[in-house]
Amino acid sequence: MMLKLSCALAEGQDPSSEVTLADGKYVWLNYTTVTKDNLAQFQTP
Q: Is this model's pTM higher than 0.85 or not?
């Protein structure tokens, strides 16, 4: 999501065309706690 936002801004595009903005200006990132129990689902093969 942040890459899409960055590219849109760098190319002079409207960022809302690439990502969902809250109140027209905020981007919310979902964070997940990585533990030893769920580490495998975040690792690339």
A: no
